[in-house]
Amino acid sequence: MSRLSGRTALITGASRGIGAAVAKRFAAEGAHVILTARTVGGLEEVDDAIFAATGRNATLVPLDLRDYDKIDQLGYSIYERFGKLDILVSNAGALEALGPIAQYDPKLWSRVMDLNVTSNYRLIRSLDRLLRTSDAGRAIFVTSAAAKAPYPYWSPYGASKAALEMIVKTYAMEIAGSPLRVNLLDPGVVASKLRTQAFPGEDPTTITQPEAITGAFVDLAEVACTKHGEIVSAQ
Q: pLDDT for 27-73, tens place per residue?
């Protein structure tokens, strides 16, 4: 497993679920992974698993992506240490709560939009030059079927993912002449904290586990990937 050998990858929301599974898979494929999340303990557990499997440590960056100045500092720190960034996996996302839009809490609305939309814009703003410095930069943004069609009580989350898709597709058009490839990935129905929030009575062992979809991330992250500005389904 060496499809990402020598590559440096930043993965957000990497302390559990899809982000943690992707981090472990990328490390197994030879990448050095930079992991961000708010939960320090979760990041350390992922790092322990990576070290046990590969003998190499990840770079851990405890970070709340709603602290936008810290995103700028992250880009500068990556430049100082690595000089470039080969892969971005923007996986962190929030559901917060489901409910009718007419009664939705404005604070929760802002939290969803701040993380699912604005933090992605700030990541692009901070990391674009680093990704373009790579000989084959790759950026993967995690989207959802909720962006495609309205679901009752899912308005903030669906709207945020629709906005993300517009941002990423536009970004892809703007950098079409560069070696950087930018795509969206829809993981489908996968066991995760967000899924449990939305469907609390569901048995998570009966649905797809995060590890089963990591191959789709590797496909979009490797140098051989030619997809650009697309929405790819993991299942």
A: 999 999 999 999 999 999 999 999 999 999 999 999 999 999 999 99
**Tokens 């469907």 belong to residue:** 199
Which pLDDT score is estimated for 133? 95
Positive or negative: CA dihedral 84, 9, 62, 158: positive
pTM to 2 decimal places: 0.97
Q: Which CATH class is domain 8-233?
A: alpha beta
pLDDT at 123 over 80: yes
Q: Is 157 a catalytic residue?
A: yes
Spatial CA neighbour of 90 closest among 12, 186, 6? 12
Q: Which of 76, 121, 153, 157 is catalytic?
A: 157
The whole-angstrom separation of Cα 173 and Cα 108 is 32
Give tens-digit pLDDT for 146-203: 999 999 999 999 999 999 999 999 999 999 999 999 999 999 999 999 999 999 999 9
Boundaries of every domain in the chain: 8-233
Q: How far apart are CA 174 and CA 42, in angstroms?
A: 36
Name the nearest CA neighbour of 89 among 146, 17, 177, 163. Answer: 17
Pair type for strands 138-142 and 32-37: unpaired
Query: Does the pLDDT of residue 1 top 90, yes or no?
Result: no
pLDDT at 107: 98
Q: Which two tokens stand for residue 156?
A: 């903030």
